[in-house]
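Can anyone check this?
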Amino acid sequence: MNTPLPSRQIVLRGAHNVRDLGGYLTAQGTPVPMRRFLRGDCLHRLDDGEPERLHFEGLRMVVDLRTAREVRDAPSRLARQRGVEWVNLPLFDALSPAALAEVEVPEGHPLLAMYITAIETRGAAIRTILSRISTVRDGAVLFNCTAGKDRTGIIAALLLGLAGVSHTDIISDYALTEQFIPELVSEFLSRSRANGGDVEAYAALLESPASAMAGMMEHLDAQYGSVMGYLDHIEIPTDVLSRLQVRLGVTG
């Protein structure tokens, strides 16, 4: 049985969508250990004391997946936390409109095109991100973006897939974001409206539909056989994969 949701959600003052990847069952039938891998949204509004609390509870690294501009405009409160290594490794930095047009994707939610394009064009960035995450030997690593669903969702899906967690659980973990970010969505849409943006189109990109993650997982299976097949394709070193699997509770 999976660990109940309340033990996965980490309630922080100033953040909305910080969760533990622990508790999902691996291919070996054992749960992913808790407090090893955390996924999160933007951390620039954490209240005083929250960065220290995370460190006290075991946080040792933060991998910020946002662009350099996003980081500059909204600096992470964890970037200067003593005892926590913070690193900025953007996932979507080179995900241009041209790249989106070049990658053939099945019809579906517009987010599916983004996810598959990232999988197909940002392999080097994904390799760098997972390699850096694998250097954490003790404590927890937190990887985050702005809403904690797209860039963070891709990395979470690959980690859980590496552990052999079922597609059903991977998709459910992704879709949970919708429960946690209504305030963020409202804020983003209000800002877009004030700037004269296409609010309807933007609203679709702020959704967390299970179909988008399901489509990404189907693509990985169809093109590479599995998540492991994809990670081999983008040439992630065997020792990196082994370290990640050990941290995910998968043995030999």
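Reply from J.R.: I decoded it. The chain has a mean pLDDT of 91.
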